[in-house]
């Protein structure tokens, strides 16, 4: 009986450890991601466009993509160069210029029945206290938000839907060549949302974390060893 109990505990530990080692499948979503252009490169935004208030000379990028989180999100494919975007727009007193890059994504990332518009850049000239969302609205209407203030559509694209889940057969492409498929019950933190997303680091993984399962396995193993030692002393 004693050997059976210990063997059962060790077997359970091995089963839990095996679960911990198995890869978690992250649910992916189709959504607009939000980026900061700095030094000609793109960095995932740490807050949404309604709260971010960029300075004159900043560049904000928006990319329609498919991914589970910020690490998987496709960056805008246009360079983040302010001079190239706003060089022909003269400065005005009491106003600031924000370069806006709109990348509507690839055909593979598009919702069924829709084709992404051609990427474009705009120079938004707005009040000095304007947010990135207000700069976007100045050059890319109509914008569409959901009840949680998640940015769902820019310049009318896509026509419907908002951060809907994408199953394995619908996976899109980051850059038109790399296949990928944006957890389980919640949309990714896009950076383009006010209220649901701020830093682009939230996504479900469809199951318990490997760290949690590994911890459970360790507890089971230690418990089995303690029982064995106690019974050995009594014997």
TrEMBL record:
Residues 1-26 form the signal peptide. Keywords: Membrane, Signal, Transmembrane, Transmembrane helix. It comes from Streptomyces tubercidicus. Residues 165-209 are annotated as: Disordered. The chain crosses the membrane at residues 210-228. Residues 196-209 have a biased composition (Gly residues). This is Secreted protein. Residues 179-195 have a biased composition (Low complexity).
């Amino acid at each position: 009986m004693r050997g059976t109990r210990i063997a059962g505990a060790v077997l359970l530990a091995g089963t839990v450890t095996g679960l911990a080692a198995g890869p978690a499948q992250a649910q992916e979503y189709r959504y607009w991601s939000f980026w900061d252009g700095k030094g000609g490169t793109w960095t995932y935004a740490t807050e949404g466009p309604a709260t971010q208030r960029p300075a004159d000379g900043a560049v904000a990028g928006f990319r329609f993509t498919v991914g589970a989180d910020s690490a998987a999100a496709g960056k805008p494919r246009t360079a983040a160069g302010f001079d190239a975007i706003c060089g022909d727009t003269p400065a005005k007193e009491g106003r600031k210029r924000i370069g806006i890059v709109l990348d509507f994504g690839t055909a593979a990332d598009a919702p069924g029945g829709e084709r992404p518009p051609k990427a474009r850049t705009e120079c938004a000239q707005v009040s000095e206290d304007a947010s990135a969302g207000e700069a976007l609205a100045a050059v890319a209407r109509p914008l569409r938000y959901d009840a949680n203030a998640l940015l769902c559509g820019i310049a009318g694209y896509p026509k419907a839907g908002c951060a809907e889940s994408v199953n394995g057969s619908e996976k899109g492409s980051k850059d038109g060549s790399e296949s990928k498929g944006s957890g389980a019950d919640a949309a990714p933190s896009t950076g383009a949302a006010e209220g649901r997303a701020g830093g682009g680091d939230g996504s479900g993984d469809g199951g318990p974390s490997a760290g949690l399962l590994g911890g459970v396995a360790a507890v089971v193993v230690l418990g089995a060893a303690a029982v064995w030692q106690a019974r050995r002393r009594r014997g």
